[in-house]
Design goal:
By secondary structure, the chain is an alpha+beta fold. 44% of the residues lie in helices and 10% in strands. The protein contains 47 helices and 31 strands. The strands form 9 sheets. The protein has a 5-stranded mixed beta sheet. The protein has a 5-stranded antiparallel beta sheet with strand order 11-12-14-13-22, with helices on both faces. A hairpin with a 5-residue loop joins strand 18 (516-519) and strand 19 (525-528).
Length: 1352
């Protein structure tokens, strides 16, 4: 990863300003590579091999890396020696004398201890449990996707292989098919399982070790039965393992005469069993899999489908050896592990990498332990530690597991679940898990909280330091805690406030009233009960709205002019006009813990800052003009800022600062009389923030879905899209209302379908949780299958229990739970009763009535929902795993889902994500470079990001950039990793995985692998049909690509279906529809139907002309094609009249698309390369040029033929409209490569005074990155992708985006102000008062081409 940006001069300074990972971090990345060197490993009975090490590694890091190598595995208890000297495990490799590239390091076998011997046995067992093809499904994990050569076999090893021999896709994947087979989703053929190594490996019956043998060094006795049938007893001792003379009847621990002592158990097994040796050799000689397929995922990803035959896939895991049951001698201290990881140094890049890695390991291990502990607790293997049946608490594996108390103030059971979820946002060592209808919270044990009250009283510094009940105290520890809380409150936009306790004591707080701060025995501060940290959602606080919260002594202030306030409307209180009648808010909610999301708080702050900026500008214009006030530097600007602060509700009257009181609208909280004004201001702000969700965020989400072909497909993607805009899921009913009231509701039917489906599944989950509480363990499978049948089969009635029991008895006898259903309440549940409960739950939570109808058929008929999609969503949300087979969900005579189809119920864990700071910075920097067209720099940054952290989104963006640079092979390789990571981390049928398959198809097609591209696209279509159905905009994208790569008769079906969908979702004048018309015209030409081709191409040309104008390259291409079609149609018609149809075939071959053309069309359809929008409206450009000329003339520029010329040192310097120094992309000079990922992050803040960005007609106008300019010069600005100006850097001043946007007339600028992050003044809003000549025009300094378009 060489740094291609020239060092020195302005370029280096600009790079550091743009890239957040510049400077020392770039040097750190280079050091990670420069310190890497190879060494040779020998000894310990392994074949010599080379190992690549880093100088900053510790010796123990090198040992851990060696133990993972196939050449060394399963050997353990090894040390390293250099030149005959054993190396210190804690020494750095770069500090070792004599260690250089090519040095020989020997492996030294160390004596075993009892613990290390068991660890070695565990490694051997792990090797013998070689993963089979169905292991991931059996364990409930998303299956691994094979890579490389096996990808073709993986994609073919499904039902899609039933396609005909001519390469045509199967019928169930054709447009219009209603068949949804599940057997095609996952590989299910009879693949060869892992080889058999041993018949049995278990603990010997002669354990435990007798005392006299323990004194002689015996650790453990093991019994082995080889594949040849030989039975041997093996002794574990400090030197290794040997065969003893014991039998089943006789104990004789003496070594056998022919048995050597082997340090590794597998060496001994190879000597006594030729079959074991052959199988082990075959295992070690297998092809190496990529690391993304081998490395374990940090968290468990649930697979809702299991193996087709669960009983047959179950195999001997050698669990009788007892390694799985060996508990740690001491429970792990999760809090200490996490705190120790957080306290690791962060000075250098390698230190931060080690810290991030350690945090991720601790958090993932904690999440796995919580899942295992939840199963253990709910299954009844742990007794409560407190003996309270109402609120039982459990101690297991260093975890404190509890359900939490159900408070009536917060809404009972619903409030308890909400509190656990909100607590997760503020606590690190904390996880919640849903298992069998029970929600448990698990957290590490905090030190110093288990002491007695007497100990706490004796040492008050160790007790409660912060909170309502802390009492008055002054101590250094309390002051330090308050300082830390003040810093945290600033980042969270929380206001410091004072509450009055019951004994009239005033307590200052930075958090909610529930929070308590303590000092633990380890010297660290801890905050408890943070579930109400974020501000309350005023839309769901109707009772508090009518209650007074402020303890006031001036009653007359509450009584004055109440009627006058009512006449002024709701704007005075914070509610918009007619808000209550239009939205029905505020209203009550089932629980009282409705809080605003942090994303909403940030968006609301940005919205208020826009209002603040606009208000300041208006006031300055009223008082003499913006420029005059900026130059005068008098009180007018200060007064404008003060008035704007008061208008928008800033907590400060001199700068813009938004903070929120988390305890406002809490009925149990009282505020001092003097804070009445501040409290009313906070109430107003929270009402405005709550109304902002309904009036701005929800319409913005609907507008995004209206124009995006990557709109939400399922519940997970819908939740992500809503949360990105700060919309909580309790607003799903309001989203549904907004869609139904939209004039484009028919184009938003796929979003309505996703919203209704999510409401349905979430309501079902709540009913299902209560349903499971009355089911005993032996009847779980039958109860779950019965619930699903009542849910999805219309008018389902359960089979009489007696008849079903008789049938089972005749087939396989009565099982242990066969008669449990006779007296179980769950067996009497009917479909009508279940749907009544669902409708009540949906109406109570989402305020919808009659939307779910009377049964599942209503959802299918009115919204186009698929029962299979609902079944998938239900299983993912509840943890239910079903057997992989095809389900017919419309059969009313027979239950479509039986007890044998329910394989398992897995815990659904919700945990915190550990950030990777350096990788995230590199990724954001790469996105910034991509927006400017600097692909080389973006490529380097993305390589750094993928090196620092294996992320699906980093690989996806890296593949796009590599492809845009012409590196198709690299793009294919990187995208393969993205597919594998997405399947393993997100899920094999996650919407992101579908998009990754579509992108992979483009890259493999670029490499000439047409058949593999077809299979990738068919795979994406199959997953899409399962997840959502055919009626979705992204199906049009996949079908367009399929129509391009297929060669059979089905090609036209896919292209026509894509055109139909695009026309239905986007209209006839949209870009997606125009591209579809263009593709259909190409296909019509290849079929010889020139008349139809002419019709479609005319529609495409009209759309391209309206979008881009007549001078755009895409419009010219369409014109040329239409002209060619017209000429060819005339020629064919003339030939048909004269000679017949022979010439027609030749004409068809002539108009067939070439592979390069097909690839370019796929790139455009999938969004890898976007078409640059250029507005051809002459009126806009006329006004734009007039405004530019007027401002330029005022600033002393010379305008000649629309070109602005600057006079510097008596010389005229103007830009050449035909040249530029920016790095342009390949698509018509556009530098932009749009990232299609749903999780695309925002571009980082650019604080440099050498750049100015604005929007000209919706396009970014910003300085270019150059390599040849002088240190104090800027060699141009990027306008629509091309560099068009020359000006000295002293004339380019940083202006606010709001000012530039106002000059350009652009109102859709995404505002991201630095004033939100730091203290600012009125100068953050207005320009510097040192003359008008310093102000850039339209965000640019210098000249711009007359029409603002980039030259072709």
């Amino acid at each position: 990863m060489k740094d291609k940006v020239r060092r020195g001069g302005r370029n280096h300074a600009k790079t550091d300003a743009v890239s957040p990972t510049g400077g020392k971090d770039d040097v750190g990345i280079k050091q990670l590579e420069d310190t890497s060197f190879p060494v040779k490993i020998q000894g310990a009975g392994v074949e010599p091999f080379d190992l690549q090490v880093h100088g900053f590694w510790l010796v123990q890091d090198a040992v851990m890396t060696l133990l993972l190598k196939d050449e060394v595995c399963p050997r353990s208890n090894l040390s390293l020696a250099l030149a005959g000297t054993t190396l210190d495990p804690l020494a750095e490799l770069q500090s070792l004398k004599g260690l250089k590239p090519g040095a020989i390091i020997r492996l030294v076998e160390e004596p075993y201890t009892a613990r290390s011997a068991r660890h070695h046995l565990a490694r051997v067992v792990e090797l013998l449990r070689a993963p089979g093809p169905q292991d991931a499904l059996r364990e409930g994990r998303s299956p691994n996707s094979p890579n490389g050569k096996s990808l073709k076999r993986s994609l073919s090893n499904t039902k899609t292989e039933t396609s005909s021999q001519d390469g045509a896709p199967p019928e169930f994947l054709l447009p219009g098919s209603l068949e949804r087979p599940l057997m095609g989703l996952l590989p299910h053929s009879s693949q060869h399982d892992a080889p058999s190594y041993l018949k049995d490996l278990s603990l010997s019956c002669w354990n435990p070790i007798p005392g006299h043998r323990k004194l002689q060094g015996d650790f453990l006795y093991i019994t082995v039965v080889t594949m040849e049938g030989r039975r041997c007893d093996i002794t574990s001792c400090p030197k290794g393992f040997f065969i003893n003379r014991s039998t089943e009847e006789l104990f004789d621990p003496r070594p056998s005469q022919s048995s050597p002592v082997c340090h590794c158990l597998t060496d001994l097994l190879c000597q006594i069993s030729p079959a074991f040796k052959q199988a082990l050799t075959k295992l070690k000689n297998r092809s190496q899999l990529p690391s993304v397929e081998v490395l374990p995922t940090p968290y468990h990803t649930l697979s809702w489908l299991g193996p087709p035959c669960a009983s047959r896939t179950h195999k001997n895991t050698f669990s009788r050896l007892g390694m799985d049951d060996q508990l740690e001698t001491q429970a792990p201290d999760w809090n200490e592990d996490l705190q120790a990881a957080r306290d690791l140094p962060q000075g250098s890049l390698e230190e931060r990498l080690r810290r991030d890695k350690t945090l991720l390991q601790v958090n993932s291990a904690f999440a796995r332990a919580v899942a295992q502990g939840a199963e253990t607790v709910v299954d009844g293997f742990v007794e409560p530690a407190n003996g309270n049946p109402e609120d039982p608490a459990f101690l297991w594996g260093g975890l404190f597991i509890s359900q939490g108390a159900a408070s009536t103030m917060f809404g009972g059971e619903r409030g308890r679940r909400a509190a656990q979820r909100l607590e997760l946002q503020g606590v690190q060592a904390y996880t919640i898990v849903d298992y069998r209808g029970v929600r448990l919270s698990a957290q590490g044990l905090a030190p110093g909280l288990e002491g007695s009250d007497r100990d706490q009283a004796a040492a008050p510094a160790k007790g409660l330091l912060y909170g309502v009940n802390a009492g008055p105290q002054e101590s250094p520890q309390r002051m330090r805690l308050l300082e830390l809380l003040a810093v945290s409150a600033k980042h969270l936009s929380l206001q410091r406030y004072v509450v009055v306790t019951s004994n009239n004591y005033k307590v200052p707080l930075f958090t909610s009233v529930d929070a308590q701060g303590l000092l633990g025995a380890d010297g660290r501060f801890y905050i408890l009960d943070v579930f109400r940290t974020f501000p309350a959602d005023a839309n769901f606080c109707p009772d508090v709205e009518r209650e007074g919260q402020t303890v006031t002594e001036d009653e007359e202030s509450n009584k004055k002019s109440e009627e006058g306030e009512e006449e002024k409307g709701c704007v005075k209180k914070g509610w918009p006009e007619n808000y209550h009648s239009d939205s029905g808010l505020p209203k009550s909610f089932p629980h009282g813990l409705c809080r605003l999301r942090p994303e909403l708080v940030q968006a609301f702050k940005e919205h208020k800052h826009c209002q603040f900026t606009q208000h300041v500008r208006e006031l300055l214009e009223e008082n003499g003009g913006f420029e005059e006030c900026a130059i005068a530097s008098d009180s007018r600007s200060t007064n404008a800022v003060r008035a704007a602060c008061k208008e928008v509700g800033s907590v400060s009257n001199i700068i813009f600062e938004m903070r929120f009181n988390p305890s406002v609208f809490s009925p149990e909280v009282s505020f001092p009389p003097g804070d009445s004004k501040s409290t009313k201001l906070q109430e107003r702000l929270l009402r405005e923030a709550a109304a902002f969700i309904v009036t701005h965020q929800i319409p913005a989400f609907v507008e995004y879905c209206l124009h995006s072909n990557e709109a939400p497909m399922d519940g997970a993607s819908l939740k992500q899209a809503l949360h990105q805009r700060g919309i909580s899921l309790r607003y799903l009913g309001h989203v549904m209302t907004a869609i139904s009231q939209s004039e484009h509701k028919e184009r938003l039917r796929h979003i309505m379908r996703a919203v209704i489906g999510d409401i349905f599944t979430r309501s079902t989950r709540r009913v299902f949780n209560n349903f499971l509480q009355g089911v005993d363990v032996p009847s779980l499978s039958a109860a779950v299958s019965h619930f699903l049948c009542c849910l999805l089969v219309p008018h389902f009635t359960p089979t009489p229990v007696g008849e079903e029991t008789k049938k089972k008895s005749r087939r396989r006898g009565r099982g242990p739970g066969a008669g449990a259903a006779e007296s179980s309440p769950w067996s009497t549940l009917t479909g009508a009763e279940l749907w009544t409960l669902l409708c009540q739950e949906a109406a109570e939570t989402y305020n919808i009535s009659d939307s779910l109808g009377s049964g599942p058929n209503h959802l299918v008929e009115h919204y186009g929902l698929q029962k299979l999609s609902l079944l998938r969503e239900f299983c993912l949300k509840t943890g239910v795993q079903l057997r992989l087979r095809d389900y017919i969900l419309d059969n009313q005579n027979k239950a479509p889902i039986g007890p044998d189809d329910v394989l398992n119920i897995f815990p659904v864990v919700k945990h915190n994500e550990m950030p990777t700071v350096d990788a995230s910075k590199a990724h954001r920097a790469a996105e910034g470079f991509i927006k400017k067209g600097l692909l080389d720099q973006a490529h380097e940054k993305l390589k750094e990001a993928t090196y620092l952290f294996e992320s699906c989104f980093c690989h996806t963006l890296l593949a796009k950039v590599a492809f845009m640079q012409g590196k198709a092979a690299e793009a294919r390789s990187v995208q393969l990793k993205a597919v594998v990571i997405s399947e393993r981390v997100l899920g094999f049928d996650h919407p992101n995985t579908i998009q990754q398959y579509a992108l992979l198809a483009v890259y493999v097609f670029a490499g000439g692998e047409t058949a593999l591209a077809q299979k990738c696209l068919l795979r994406a279509r199959l997953l899409m049909l399962t997840v959502h159905g055919e009626d979705h905009p992204y199906i049009a994208t996949v079908d367009s690509c399929l129509g391009l790569v297929l060669t059979g008769d089905q090609r036209g079906q896919f292209l026509k279906n894509a055109l139909r969908l695009n026309t239905s979702f986007f209209g006839s004048s949209h870009l997606h529809t125009a591209l579809s018309e263009h593709l259909v015209a190409h296909w019509m030409c290849s079929k010889g139907d020139y008349r139809s081709a002419m019709t479609h191409e005319k529609e495409a040309l009209a759309a391209f002309t309206s979008i881009f104008g007549e001078d755009h390259a895409q419009t010219r291409i369409s014109k040329e094609l239409l002209c060619t079609i017209t000429k060819q149609a005339v020629k064919v018609e003339r030939s048909l009249r004269q000679a017949g149809a022979d010439c027609t075939e030749q004409a068809v071959e002539y108009l067939s698309s070439k592979s390069d053309t097909v690839l370019e069309q796929m790139v455009l359809v999938t969004g890898i390369r976007s078409i640059t929008h250029r507005d051809g409206l002459q009126e806009y450009w006329k006004k734009h040029k007039e405004l530019k000329a007027a401002v330029a003339k005022e600033l002393g520029f010379i305008v000649t033929n629309g070109v602005v010329t600057l006079i510097v040192n008596g010389e005229e310097k103007s830009s050449d409209p035909n040249t530029g120094s920016g790095k342009e992309a390949e698509d018509e000079g556009s530098p932009a490569v749009e990232n299609a990922s749903d999780s695309q992050q925002e571009q980082p803040e650019e604080e440099s005074s050498e750049k100015s960005a604005a929007m000209t007609n919706g396009h970014v106008v910003e300085p270019a990155e150059t390599e040849s300019s002088a240190p104090n010069e800027v060699n141009g600005n990027i306008v629509n992708g091309e560099v068009k100006s020359n000006a000295t850097a002293d004339e380019i001043k940083s202006e606010s985006n709001g000012v530039n946007g106002e000059i350009n007339g652009a109102c859709d600028i995404t505002v991201k102000h630095s004033v939100l992050k730091s203290t600012g003044t009125w100068a953050d809003v207005v320009s510097k008062a040192n003359g008008a000549a310093d102000t850039a025009v339209n965000g640019t300094a210098g000249s711009v081409t007359a029409n603002g378009e980039a030259e072709e």
